[in-house]
Amino acid sequence: GQQVMQIPQYQHVQEGEDFTTYCNSSTTLSNIQWYKQRPGGHPVFLIQLVKSGEVKKQKRLTFQFGEAKKNSSLHITATQTTDVGTYFCAGHYNFNKFYFGSGTKLNVKP
Amino acid sequence: GAGVSQSPSNKVTEKGKDVELRCDPISGHTALYWYRQSLGQGLEFLIYFQGNSAPDKSGLPSDRFSAERTGGSVSTLTIQRTQQEDSAVYLCASRVADTQYFGPGTRLTVL
Description:
The complex is a heterodimer. By secondary structure, chain A is mostly beta strands.
């Protein structure tokens, strides 16, 4: 069945270091979304990528969608303690369903 | 309200009991999703409602799970004869365009 794999499961970084999480699908995605879930909170939508090879930036966050629309990444430059949380990708194959990756839990040491 | 609300925020029940979880989506959002999130895991799709169309129930894990959406607004997820493996956070999201807005979730604990 369709599923989205996400790595790594955990990432511990020192404040100021960079962070990247990756998502991969075995089949072509219609689009992919990224969410952030703070500890004890609920997922909050960050961005959606639709086009092949698309790159979008939000301040220190850079989102990429692969040329084949099967993989995506989220890169955070110079992490801050406010970046702590779990980052999820959600692959969209058809109009209805989103398949969430298992998430990457980011811990930032001050 | 300003966002998606869910009730109760926490529910502790005994194995074998039925539970009802409620979701109030953002007004005007016609699409509504239910997800389940086990501890430290990703979100598992359960069911999707879109307007007056038949819901997509393909994610419901067993026939003990059911959901309805009345009047295109409030939704209720019902779990019958709860089992310990049902313990999780149940999240509701309403969608406008391509953005899903999540509620705070209901943490269900089955003893």
